[in-house]
Specification:
By secondary structure, the protein is α/β, with parallel strands linked by helices. It is built from eleven helices and nine strands. The strands form two sheets. The protein has a six-stranded mixed β-sheet, sandwiched between helices. Strands 3-2-6 form a three-stranded antiparallel β-sheet. It is globular, with a radius of gyration of 19 Å.
Length: 305
């Protein structure tokens, strides 16, 4: 195993442990999600396709623990919405890392402790003297192959990741994944952020993306994606306004269901669509991950027969 992949595997472990420190994620996992996902994977031992296909079922898994949400009133209803959103972000991050295991990519639910600063700097938007970042719920970091870089003698994974992000930035890639449980109310947000990041120039010189040192234009690749459950009622059609708003996102529009033509991809398609450079075969990696769920990847906390 190359040092870059070893580094990613350590960051992956830390990213998953970070999720289980979130009460909204941990409670849902213990109450229902672990059992449902393990059941879906039952009989898939040595079969990585079953792991990848979890992307077709993630919405149903999430909805098994859906709280009062919009039916709740006042502050309690808003608290339920917030907890549900954080839980969905956590579940998507968990699944992305399971599918990315063994690759040079790692998904991290926004954390300045785990994400090297250059990645945050590259997506920083400055308006006048005020700087802000997109609602970057999840950042997927893709590091370059070891053969392409001169690695220093560093053993700490976080320090090595920061070194690569700093000194080999142009060989790294970044995927921003924005997660929302509701589609109708939120589709315009990723649409506008993606337009902002895709713009080559701004007529107003008070607007800028990135910093002098780090900018998304300098990355090997940059994508912006939207992932929804959705909890919104009603059928989504190709000509629906929410669908049209995210139809041309640079990283694509996804949900935790099977793909529906002209509406949304299954989340399982995000691996090859956006992060194919990170490994030779996601299926081969998934086969190895399934073989090692009880050992190397025990931190995913699955119990598959």
């Amino acid at each position: 195993m190359s040092r870059v992949i070893s580094m990613c595997e350590e960051l992956r472990r830390q990213a998953i442990e970070h999720l289980f420190q979130m009460s909204s994620f941990r409670k849902s996992w213990d109450a229902q999600w672990q059992k449902d996902i393990s059941c879906l994977l039952s009989g898939s031992k040595n079969n990585g396709q079953g792991l990848i296909d979890l992307g077709d079922h993630l919405s149903n898994v999430f909805l098994t623990t859906k709280g009062e949400g919009r039916n709740g009133g006042g502050s309690s209803g808003q608290a339920s919405l917030s907890a549900g959103g954080a839980g969905w972000e956590g579940l998507v991050t968990w699944y992305l890392n399971l599918g990315l295991a063994g690759s040079r990519a790692v998904a991290i639910k926004s954390s300045k402790k785990l994400v090297p600063a250059p990645f945050y700097e590259s997506i920083r938007v400055t308006y006048g003297t005020h700087g802000t970042n997109t609602e970057s719920d999840i950042l997927v970091l893709v590091f370059p192959e070891q053969e392409q870089v001169d690695l220093p003698d560093i053993d700490d994974a976080n320090t090595l990741a920061t070194h690569l992000a700093t000194h080999e930035f142009s060989k790294c890639s970044l995927g921003v994944v924005q997660c929302k449980t509701n589609w109708n109310d939120n589709a315009q947000i990723p649409m506008l952020w993606d337009m902002l990041y895709s713009a080559d120039t701004f007529r107003n010189n008070k607007i800028s993306v990135g910093t002098t040192s780090y900018n998304i234009k300098s990355l090997n690749n940059f994508t912006y994606s939207f992932v929804t459950v959705p909890t919104s009622r009603g059928a989504f059609k190709a000509n629906s306004t929410p669908v049209l708003r995210v139809n041309n996102l640079s990283g694509g529009n996804y949900w935790g269901k099977p793909s529906k033509q002209s509406v949304a991809f299954s989340l399982k398609e995000i691996f090859n669509n956006n992060f194919g450079e990170s490994c030779k075969s996601f299926l081969e990696n998934a086969n190895k991950t399934m073989d090692n769920l009880d050992s190397q990847y025990a931190y995913f906390k699955l119990n598959v027969d």
